[in-house]
TrEMBL record:
It comes from the Bacteria. The keyword Membrane does not apply. This is Damage-inducible protein DinB. The keyword Ribonucleoprotein does not apply. Gene3D superfamilies: dinb family like domain. Belongs to the DinB family. Keywords: Metal-binding.
């Protein structure tokens, strides 16, 4: 599988997801569905998915500033990183859209780094590393995993989620 084709799938899946999320009430988007200290509601995961791409692709792989700075979304604590139930959905989606636009603009640079032998520190407090290509695939599979969480949360809240499987969006 080629990374560009898979990122194209993610972009299509995002559009389907975003359209569905825009039909939900703010109450449902903000409702704590998961009993955890981390992402508890749909809005938390919307931010988290975008922040992971922003951090790994823009900051870690390319050494560029994170897009979140322009949106005033820089976390100052674990709580402000994970919890976004009071943020308007449109602000969170605008951030995600801006991250995507930046990724697309920087795609050739990302591909050059992914094809290099550059190693990226996997954890701030540990020594393990990943290749740049592994980081690229980690970020993309991370999004698939968490969009599946959002789909499940939509079901738990009584809504019909979109079908986001690769085959539904990319078969030709």
């Amino acid at each position: 599988m080629h990374a560009e084709r898979f990122y194209s799938y993610l972009r299509k899946a995002r559009r389907e997801l975003w359209t569905s999320l825009r039909t939900l009430s703010d109450e449902d988007l903000s409702r704590a569905v998961l009993p955890t200290e981390g992402a508890r509601c749909i809005k938390d995961l919307v931010f988290h998915i975008a922040a992971v791409e922003d951090g790994w692709f823009h900051l870690d792989l390319l050494g560029k500033p994170m897009v979140q700075v322009a949106f005033g979304l820089e976390p100052t604590s674990e709580d402000t990183y994970w919890h976004h139930e009071t943020e308007p959905l449109e602000k969170l989606l605008a951030y995600w859209e801006a991250v995507e636009a930046d990724t697309l603009q920087l795609w050739p640079e990302l591909m050059a780094v992914a094809g290099s032998d550059q190693k990226i520190k996997a954890f701030d407090d540990r020594t393990e590393t990943l290749s740049a290509d592994e980081v690229l695939w980690h970020v993309m599979q991370h999004e698939v995993r968490h969009t599946a969480h959002i789909v499940q949360m939509m079901r738990l809240l009584g809504h019909k989620p979109p079908s986001l499987d690769y085959v539904f969006l990319m078969a030709h």
